[in-house]
TrEMBL record:
Annotated IclR-ED domain residues: 68-214
UniProt protein name: Helix-turn-helix domain-containing protein
Alphabetical keyword list: DNA-binding, Transcription, Transcription regulation
KW Nucleotide-binding (keyword) present: no
Organism: Streptomyces hazeniae
Length: 214
């Protein structure tokens, strides 16, 4: 710790990160061991976090992430969308197709930013707020592929046709290396297949967005 940082805040944030990494919660003793501090300190940290609904404790005394983090999480989408828009605009204009940023929302893929090309006679309408299951559509499949070995991505992107809209093809690449955010960048176009150069351009755009969010 340096003179400019808060030890208490640092410990509180470490508690939240530890709880976010477990599905079954942690006891005071477990947190004490992981943080390397005594149980009294952990009790104080948990009590403060509980007051802000960031932590809850079940009947067995295990601490878990509280619903208060959802209120904070709702503010993430606008920030991510703002950071992604320049790369999405460039992608849409370059390939003449609707470009989108999709994030994981529970078990769904949620489009949080969409940019349509300005110069095409027609393009696929795709709106922010559109959601679908992660196992359908290029955007969701790319996110799932990003969780697995690189080999699952093949050329670095996922292609689909007609899964979400008849006659439309999609290409998407996962955003990799962004802590705390799972998402993909993709395009959707009214073609039977997506040209290879478009897939490569999507991979580049996904990297641009990931860089902007780091």
């Amino acid at each position: 710790m340096t003179a400019e940082t808060s030890q208490t805040l640092d410990r509180g944030l470490r508690v939240l990160k530890l709880l976010a990494d477990t599905d079954h919660g942690l006891t005071v003793t477990e947190l004490s061991n992981k943080l390397g501090v005594n149980r009294t300190v952990v009790y104080r940290l948990l009590a403060t976090l509980e007051q802000h609904a960031l932590v809850r404790r079940d009947l067995g005394g295990r601490a878990r992430v509280g619903l208060g983090v959802l209120r904070l999480g709702r503010q993430v989408h606008p920030l991510v969308r703002e950071a992604a828009l320049p790369a999405l605009r460039s992608l849409a204009e370059d390939v003449g197709a609707t470009a989108h940023l999709t994030l994981v929302d529970g078990n769904d893929a949620l489009a949080v930013a969409v940019v349509e090309p300005s110069w095409t006679d027609y393009h696929v309408a795709y709106r922010p707020g559109f959601r679908h299951s992660l196992d359908r559509g290029a955007a969701g499949r790319a996110i799932l592929a990003g969780r697995g070995p690189d080999a699952e991505l093949g050329p670095g992107y996922i292609l689909t046709h007609g899964e979400l809209e008849a006659g439309a093809s999609g290409a998407a690449a996962p955003m990799l290396g962004v802590t705390g955010i799972e998402g993909s960048v993709g395009v959707v176009m009214l073609t039977d297949s997506v040209p290879t150069q478009v897939g490569d351009r999507v991979v580049h755009a996904a990297q641009e967005v990931a860089d902007a969010l780091r």
